[in-house]
Amino acid sequence: MYQRLSHRCFGLAQKTIIVKSSMAQRALIITLGCRLNHADTALLSARLKNAGYELCSSCAEKPDLIVLNSCAITAEAERKSRQQIRKLRKAHPSARIAVAGCAAELAPEKFLECGADITFTNPDKKLFPAAPAGVNSREIPFENFTEKSLSEFPFRTRAFIKIQEGCDNFCSYCIVPYVRGASRSRKFAECIADCQHAIDAGFPEIVFTGVNTCNYFDDGKDLIALIREVAALPGNFRIRLSSTEPHPDDLSIPELMADPASKLCRFLHLSMQHGSDPVLAAMRRNYTSEQFIDFVTNVRALVPDIHIGSDFIIGFPGETEADFIRLLEVVNTVKFANIHPFAYSIRPGTPAAVMPGQVPAMIVKQRMKLLADAAGNAAVDFARSQLGKTLPVIFEQEKNNILHGWSDNYLSICVPSGSFPTGKIVNIKADEKNLAENLQKNLSDGIL
What we know:
Largest sheet: 5 strands, parallel
Radius of gyration: 22 Å
Shape: globular
Strand order of the largest sheet: 4-3-5-6-7
Strand content: 15-25%
Number of helices: 12
């Protein structure tokens, strides 16, 4: 176990000493943001557990150490991360509070001012807590990497396995390449070992995560090779890909998904971001709307009943009424099973932050409502298309005498308690009762 004696230096270099403690320590990790952050939390959990910490599930357990895995995808996300630290410091004045994640990369001194004791960078996560944290070296490696740890998921029902890190795309609105670094992949053998570890622990679903999982490549082996290798491991489990950005000409993933032996869920979350070609070009996205539509058409021909989801940014600088109408046309043509709409917000440090033509907030709000209506209709249509079909489902939790689970094509399934076991893949015939949550336009999307 470790106990840290620190002098809190607001705006100055942190002075941190790590000393051994004979007392059992409790640690809590709070995770904000993306699925990759959740995978990083699983690795942090393992490191804390190996260091002798007892992992807590909530603040009610009065942790001695609190780690906030922060988010900086938008300026608002960064603000909420700092707000969380203020609340934690007020509620837990004697706890040691550390901040990791992308927001800690951007402005570590602001978290110290909010009450954190230490911050550490994304590369330094693998050093915590066995080595002094708070060094903020800001040296982001470019080589493929090992985590030197296998993931732990003490309070989750899915195993989030980190396979890739960083991004080379430099989309004009995105801060991620600046805080996560260049695209690089986790060593193939360690990915396999982490998946085996999760399977041995009884997890029925493995989720591959990364900034751009399609870029995975190590020792001559790509994402397809990794999926095949994991699928060949013994056990009754399935594999899901988190957000992906395959090239519109590359159908290798859906072709593999069509093979039941791949164990791949019928699910692709494709971050289209917009439907207008001029806006896509300004965003530095490397495809046209027609290329995207053609790709989805080809995917659905290969994988019937696949769940296609996407992200869209509304109010990007220069977005005209015609641009937005084109976006709605694309949404109505593709008929996504779910959409995450985001109102554009200025992200300092990105090219878009200084672009002319910032769209007034009132117009963005109106457009968001129109997109939400179109997205809700499409989601209900997809759910209705599955009525009467048999779906592989994993029930994850029981609440108020109802079992809640997810199908492989990411539909929420609810049945009375005791109907099926949890944590196992079971076949369910979809009907209006067990699909009821999906047949409402306000269905809230959970984290994969």
